[in-house]
Amino acid sequence: MALASDLSLGSFIRYNGDICQIIEWQHRTPGNWRAFYQATMRNLRTGGKTETRFRPDEAVEVVRLEMRELQYLYRDGDSLVCMDNETYEQPYVNVALFGENIDLLKEGSMVIVGFDGDTPVIGQLPHTVVLEITYTEPGVKGDTATKAMKPATLETGAQIKVPLFCDVGDKIRVDTRTREYMERVKE
Hints:
Elements: E1 2-3, E2 12-15, E3 18-28, E4 36-43, E5 49-54, E6 59-62, E7 66-76, E8 79-83, E9 92-94, E10 110-116, E11 119-124, E12 128-136, E13 149-154, E14 159-163, E15 171-175, E16 180-185
Antiparallel strand pairs: 1-6, 2-3, 2-6, 3-4, 4-5, 7-8, 7-10, 8-9, 10-11, 12-13, 12-15, 13-14, 15-16
């Protein structure tokens, strides 16, 4: 157990029986009243957000997650089969833990998974991925001065907007947090 004053942004705690991550954390001292901590937390099981207040001396159960880097092998229904490259274990990780940008993940990519004991509770995609464009309308030669964008389908089936000069077969770097085109990659 820890005190609420020991917590910080990004901490994992057990709140109402679920594991939650603190995504906003503010210390408030309103006028003549006692100070408190205002927290916005994301429930890792449901994905919902909740706001609550903690007294500075309130006891809170801090959860220590074991973060492991795993290689994504293939998808099996609503789970991703991943492999630990050190122990060769192959845990099944629920797709919902990675969020809505899971369609940007290519087989063989490395992901970070947080475990509470043997149960995966949080997943993180790599910040950027390199993917090949499989379909897009033909580009216009010399049209690189404008910031006009066109839709493109990537090798994983994901659709994003790319600049007009990108063509089928080009490899591009995509930000998995924002789904935005970053740059063309020469390999």
